[in-house]
Amino acid sequence: MMDALRMQFVSIILFTFLAGIGITALFMVSIEYLAGAVWSTPIRRVFEMMSSIVLFLPLFALPVVLSMGNVFEWMSPKAATDQVLINKAPYLNQPFFLVRLAVILGIWILFYVLFTKNSRKQDETRDQSLTARNIKLSAIFIPVMGLSITALSIDFLMSLEPHWFSTIFGVNFFMGSLVAALSFITIAVILLNENGYLGKGIVRDHYYSLGFAMFAGCVFWTYTAFSQGMLIWYANMPEETPWYLHRWEDGWNVITISLLVVHFIVPLFALIQRKNKTNPARMIFMSCWLIFAHMFDLYWIVMPVHSHVAKIHGPSIGLAELAAALIAIGFIVVLFQQQTKNKNLVPVGDPKLQRGLAFRL
Known about the structure:
- This protein is mostly helical.
- Helix content is 73%, strand content 0%.
- It has one domain (4-357).
- The longest helix has 32 residues, at 4-35.
């Protein structure tokens, strides 16, 4: 039988995993429009399909909302006597938390609907003004997305230990989510293309570009993670260092070191080689590896708090974590299968499509 408290903490991992992937997939759509990129145009519909995750985020947020009192320290009775939490109460309170969540998810869903509506309408009308409309939407969406994903990471992850704070945390969560989203997208693109569903224009150069984006994301994730840790270590402030001590003591140092290996060292040496970024089988393997790495990262962020609350010494992995991983991956697979039915897998009305199909490095 699964431990109820563990399931409540794992529900945070599940929600933030899916939320991060959904919104960063939509970020990739907006970046293509705003930058005028052509290499990704033939596979943009895959980005759009992956971003449809945002439509279902309220469902996955519900278990977290229902168990807030058990997982968030700032909602416990002792918060009323903790001066630090009293000072943070104007932000860390249940009504404002729920309002922020509703606004964030509402904005994400709205932008998803607007982007995809214009994109699919263009398939039928070939109206180039729809591209210009999505470019304008992208200019609005990107800063809004940056603020909202930061707020979501603060609310669901950083506030698990409300005495702690980091100005780099939101960027780090964004980069980890982006790498995971690119990994799912890469798997989908390769499987669709190798089975002939994307026509004949997608070549190894497109795989290379996806691999390069994953490589760059891993390096930047490591940069933000190192910067956060180094600055906190150097400052040695009592408000900041306990967060890392909780992830180093009682056997958590093994998890911390393993995270560095899994999320940086292995991807660095694997994806730095051109031949690996153009090999479909190796790209699928590394994509699966990086999806696991992001789950592992979220486990490292969330579960030390569970160990502290449940008074468990050292890290452990239970059925709840395994179930969450299966639910997340199974949900994305089923959702993507449904999205591919009766829809163009290539944005046939986009004026950049032919240049995208002709893209070569």
